[in-house]
Amino acid sequence: MTPEGSGATPEAVGPLASTGYWLHRISLAWLRDLDAALTPLGLTHTQFLVLGAVGWLSRENETPRQQAVADFAGVDRMMTSKVLAALEKADLVERVPDPDDARGRLCHLTPVGRATLDAATNEARHVDAEWFDDLHLRDSLRRQLARRG
After folding, report:
1. What region, left, alpha or beta, does residue 19 occupy, with left being phi > 0 and alpha being psi -120 to 50 degrees?
2. Mean of the pLDDT values across residues 71-99?
3. pTM confidence score
């Protein structure tokens, strides 16, 4: 496997010898396919991450704080706030003041948000299966990330 149009050979020299290089290339290609699958639903990858975080964190009838959504999604606080504002404008989430923290906001999915998240999750599972099912990577990657923090 060589980068498209690079003329590079598959020799294990330079960046071609780096697992990190190939992980980066795979990540970009996977993200391109995921974005293509999410676009018809009106979502970007980051919006899907944040919407998914709200959905996952609220699965036990909890209403997660905006900061918990940011932490779970791995998106910084300012970006999470901007993404949630866009999702709120699209009627996918609702944010309400946190009664226990005057500066905080609580987030929950709207019915449209739940339906959109379900459809987006199905699309993401399909893209993941196309890219990774034969590789059996999920558990290995999770263990590696846990070791590295």
Report:
1. alpha
2. 97
3. 0.83
Structure tokens at 85: 């504002």
Residue given tokens 């293509």 in the structure block: 36
pLDDT of residue 9 exceeding 70, the answer is no
DSSP 72-131: HHT--HHHHHHHHHHHHHTTSEEEEEETTEEEEEEEEE-HHHHHHHHHHHHHHHHHHHHH
What are 95-114's pLDDT values in tens digits?
999 999 989 999 999 999 99
Q: Give dist(CA 66, CA 69) in Å, integer.
A: 5
58 token code pair = 């609220």
Task: Choose among 129, 130, 120: nearest CA to 52.
Answer: 120
